[in-house]
Serine phosphatase (Marichromatium gracile), 632 residues
Amino acid sequence: MRRPSIAARLSLIVSLYTSAILLAVLGVDYLRSLATLEAEIDRGARLQTEATANALEIPLSAAVRTARALAAALNHGHFDDAGARELLRQGIADNRDVLGGALLFAPSPTGTPRPRDHDCRWRGTEVECLDGREVERGPTDTPLPHPAPVDGLSWSPPYFDDDLGQARMVTLSAAFDGGRVSLDLNLDRLTREVAALRLLDSGHAALLDAGGTFITHPLAGLALRRDIHAVPEALGLDHHPERAAELLSGHPGVIDGVDVSGDPIRLYHAPVAPPGWTLVVVLPAEEIDDDVRALALTTSAIGLLGLALMLVAITLSARAITRPLRRLVAATREVAAGRLDTPLPVHPRADEIGDLTVGFATMTRSLRDHIERLTASTAAQARIASELHIAHDIQLSILPRRLAPHPAFELHALVEPAREVGGDFYDCFALDAEHHCLVIADVAGKGVPAALFMAVAKTLVKATSTPGRGPAEVLERVNAELARDNPRCMFVTLFCAILDHRSGELIHSNAGHNPPLLLRAEGSVEPLPSQRQLVLGVMEGAHYRDARARLAPGDRLLLYTDGVTEAMDAEAGLYGEARLREALRALGPGSPRSLVEGLLDEVHAFAGDTPQADDITLMALAYRGAGVPGGD
């Protein structure tokens, strides 16, 4: 009996598992969607209510700032009548929501004449002010308004202004020393924003003042005439009138109510902070549930339709899944043989075979790109190696290639960088006919940064070394230049000495460098007495001291860097200063060249195949004495 094909088995297995999983997901989604979407609608209604309340606060807060600014200016400034009137006019002109305002002064308790009152109003595009004698006071126009002030401010109940065509208005008052400033705000823009607020199909909004009076309501007859305590049914609270206090508590929240038809509603309320008003958004609960159920049913229908289409797609795809495999296998064999330009078969479906085809195409492109990048990288590395080789040659050209012979001494030196370029350097140059300057130094670090720092340090040493200037003064001047602009905190250890050809006196100063070794004519080896001082480049203002020694004819002086003593063998053991002294003693009274080359051979023999970790620099001087003929 023939077994079912791979396509049939794949279609059956995938269809069964996919159908079971999708149906389970749809069932759970349907059960949870009601609560989830209701929570989202509830959250959206809360946010919309609070956002609208915040938007309503903007013009009110601007008026508060204007009132406080005017009161503060009147408290702390001294204004005549014209100045006070101009202050009021400018404050009103800066805020288009303020239709007018007044400055009212209290009678003086001593009976002295009080300042004149001022009243300014918008007239078209200009703010016009009445002369103080023309301001008429009503019975309530006292310097401090009858509502209790809060933080120096008080708000009147909203009212209709007959002079402005029944416009909704509110008056904000701010007390100052000897009177008050009052601003009249037009609430029409706020009421339009509240009336335009719409959520769901029949949701609406209302705005209440601090006492519960309706500022705006869909029923126009309630505005500024009735309050929530008298008509709780206007917001569905007739069965729970005690919840009106919760509505006016000044905190955002949600209250359940029942409209006049007996249908449940939800009241989302948020405070409008400056005057203590409350914005209320009313949503029918049935509309919330209808939207949730409709969305859940739509999701289920789409899911079931998707399931049916997916089963058909799985069946068709499974039947075709084996056809392109042979073509893909043949193409991948060509690619494996190195023919990366072999075209892969085009698979029209976005299934596993399509992903596999795309994956092989991506792999082929990546492999080709990698080979191209590797070729370019190899060329770049070769170019860098060439440039570093040139830099190596340039750096070596900075160092003295061949030290000029001198009758009083013989000198030889070499440097072996750990990389193509390094930070060690040496120098020997004449200061005058009787003195030579000897320098050896080691810059912290290796590579190009150390090489650049080395070039700067060497240039500074040679530039600051002049006849009559001791090594310590040279070090102080070089340190001042290096430390002045050194953001990377690089430093250099440096030994500087001045040799008097006639007497053999050696004046020297050591900035943190390895002390040179002195090989006496009789064969003893001892370190040159010196005090190790602060390295160069780390601290401006550092001071250095000179030390003195005297060379006798036949004495030899070895200057070196720590690349010699810190050379390591295969067991990570250090060459060390003791081994260096023994090697120096064993090499005996040879020429400086033989001494330097012999020591370098000793270090290489000790390190073996261990890679060199630091630059190696050696400089040897053999003192003959004044008037002794000789040379290299």
In short: Confidence is low (pLDDT under 50) at residues 138-148. The radius of gyration is 48 Å. The CA atoms of residues 567 and 604 lie 9 Å apart.
